[in-house]
Amino acid sequence: MKHSIVRSTGIMAVAAGVLLAGCASGTPATSPGTGTGETGPAVPGVREDCKDGKGAVGLIPKLGTDPYMVVVKEAAEAAAAEIGGSVIFTSPSEATGAAQIPFVNQLVAQNVCVIAIAGSDTDSTKQALLGAQEKGIKVISWDSDVDPSARSVFVNQADSASIGDQMLVSMSKMLGPDGGDVAILSSTPTAVNQNAWIDSIKKQLETNPDYAKINLVTVVYGQEKADENARQATALVQSYPNLRGIIVPAGIGLPAAANALDQTGDLGRIKLTGLAPPTLISKFIQSGEVQSVWWNVSDLGTLTYHAAQAMATGKITGAEGDAFDAGALGDYKVGAKGEVILGEAQIVTPENLNTFKF
Question: With contact defined as beta carbons under 8 Å apart, do 312 and 55 qualify?
């Protein structure tokens, strides 16, 4: 890993059932920006109104009502209360890159010190984010990356390849030595992080002899909606009679698929793994029918806020080797392509389920 301290993956966050819509207000910086007109991952210059680390950080999630995103928001707000500054949480009502553009523009108008965005796709917000940089606003991404030319740092919850690999390890162990047909139920075709994980899974299936008996039959999408994920999961079972497992790399999708297949009586015969807050699927994990790959979501919000203020104050520029203090999380370094990795993700099983609080 690329940071000096690896944190525990136990979750220190609120209950996963909390849903919070809309925007939370903060006090934005009001001084004019001092942008240079340059674009790219490291816009030089530190604004006078931001260099003390007390300015506003605009936080844009993929979807404001997603409990995962809410936990990141609350952790960022707690970090702001501890070290200074404020968080302006402003969010779209649908998980698309196009829907995020007005919120980027809103934060530019509010003249925040940093925009921190979880990209719903790679390219849609690129021009808006480049425009923010031209006005002296720093840009970082978190959870899911945007075009690297439009941000300085990407705060990643874990190495992308390792997350995909762990989902495949999880599925392989549940299927046993006979393997079988599996499908992938992702969020949207443009989801950056899910696509990276899927690419890693496909590569492993093609090249790793350990997975020679696992056959990927299709990839379908639940569109970040619980009812659509449930529909897709049941459709997969009907379309592929020999299906033995579904990998669901999306937090909304895995609980929806588990509940749907539980209701149809197919869960158990069909194994599920992927990403979701363990508390949402704890009974299925406990029964051995479902596993999850997870990390400390609250720590992701904390690290994102510290990285944002490190950018605002000029402590880091996004260059490889830059280092900054993330408070209780310890010291972190920027890796290749501006990536800062939170830590290791783990496969959640009945044996370690109680260590995950979200």
Answer: yes
Cross-strand pairs, 215? 181
Note the helical H segments in 148-273.
160-175, 192-207, 226-239, 253-264
One domain, residues 196 and 112: no
Domain limits for position 251: 160-294
Q: Residue 356 domain-assigned?
A: no
Is residue 288 in a domain? yes
What's the pTM value of the predicted model, to 2 decimals? 0.72
Burial 97-131 (b: 16+ CB within 10 A, else e): bebbbebbeebbebbbbbbbbbbbbbebbbebbbb
Please check whether residues 300 and 244 belong to one and the same domain.
Answer: no
Q: How would you class 33 by CB atoms within 10 Å of its CB: exposed for 0-12, middle for 13-18, buried for 19 or more? A: buried
Structural tokens at position 327: 């408070």
Q: What is the residue-level pLDDT of the chain in tens, covering all 358 positions? A: 334 333 333 333 333 333 232 233 333 333 333 333 333 444 458 999 999 999 999 999 999 988 889 999 999 999 999 999 999 999 999 989 999 999 999 999 999 999 999 999 999 999 999 999 999 999 999 999 999 999 999 999 998 788 999 999 999 999 999 999 999 999 999 988 899 999 999 999 999 999 999 999 999 999 989 999 999 999 999 999 999 999 999 889 999 999 999 999 999 999 999 999 999 999 999 999 999 999 888 999 999 999 999 999 999 999 999 999 999 999 999 999 999 999 988 999 999 998 887 8
Residue 198: CATH number of its domain: 3.40.50.2300
List the Cα angle 301/324/337 in 5-degree steps: 80
Total domains in the chain come to 2
Distance CA 58, CA 201 (A): 33
Whether 140 is in a domain gets the answer: yes
Exposed, middle or buried: residue 207 (CB in 10 Å: 0-12, 13-18, 19+)? exposed
Q: Do 194 and 305 fall into the same domain?
A: no
**CB atoms closer than 10 angstroms to residue 190:** 18
**The two structure tokens encoding residue 177:** 């030595």
Question: Within a domain: residue 34?
Answer: no
